[in-house]
Amino acid sequence: MNKKDKFKFEHEKPNPEIIGHHSTPETFSKLLVELLGLNQVQGQIIYDGGIGVGGLSATVDTKQQIQEELIKKEALLKQKVLNLLIQKEAATKASINFPPPPPPPVEKEVENNQFNQIDQRVKEIDQRLEEIEDDVLESDNSVCGLLKRLKKRELKKAQLLEEMKKKQELLREALLYIDMSKLKNYEKEK
Asked: What is the pLDDT of the chain when averaged over all its residues?
């Protein structure tokens, strides 16, 4: 065979009946095998001449191959359905285990709650200030009491010092008087 003959042989198409217009290769081959019951050899090329120039070609699958494909597709669909059911069940379990969050509060409730919190905080601060003022007054009273006691002690010390000075002066005068009287006595004796 030369190249031209080989080209003609490869591109020649038989003249079968037009079976299905605008069909995919898979559908076309299945129509041929299943619906029409053609006994084609696997891998044989057949054409749908209704599609236009060149037509649609497909390889013919055996009935066994088609059944195997259908079984595989059916198994995949069953697995997908099972997965979806598992996901839905998990979602319902999750919603049962975790109740939905409470609805968000209304603006007035938020404002009232904030004002209540602020009022409560102000009351706490006022109480603390009163406690501090009481503590300061008590400490002031104790400090004032200490200062008064210190002043009294200082006054007592000052009074005692004055009394001691008076007594010392009296003693000096007494000593001077004694000395003078001794001196007079001594002079008399002489």
From this structure: 71
- Asked if 34 and 63 count as a contact pair (C-beta separation under 8 A), the reply is yes
Q: Which tokens in the block code for residue 122?
A: 């102000």
Residue recorded with tokens 């008590």: 138
Per-residue pLDDT tens for 100-136?
777 776 666 666 677 788 888 889 988 988 888 887 7
Which residues does the chain have with pLDDT short of 70?
1-62, 91-99, 105-112, 140
CA 175 to CA 169: how far, in whole Å?
10
- Alpha-carbon gap, residue 176 to 78, rounded angstroms: 137
Tokens 């190249």 label which residue? 3
Q: From 52, 53, 10, 51, select the one nearest 27 (Cα to Cα).
A: 51
* Other residues' Cβ atoms within 10 Å of the Cβ of residue 94: 9
Query: How far is the C-alpha of 125 from the C-alpha of 38, rounded, in Å?
Result: 97
Tell me how far apart the alpha carbons of residues 42 and 139 are, in angstroms, rounded to a whole number.
111
Q: What is the distance between the alpha carbons of residues 175 and 151, in angstroms, rounded to a whole number?
A: 35
Check: pTM over 0.90? Answer yes or no: no
Q: Domain extents for the chain?
A: 1-61, 66-98, 110-182
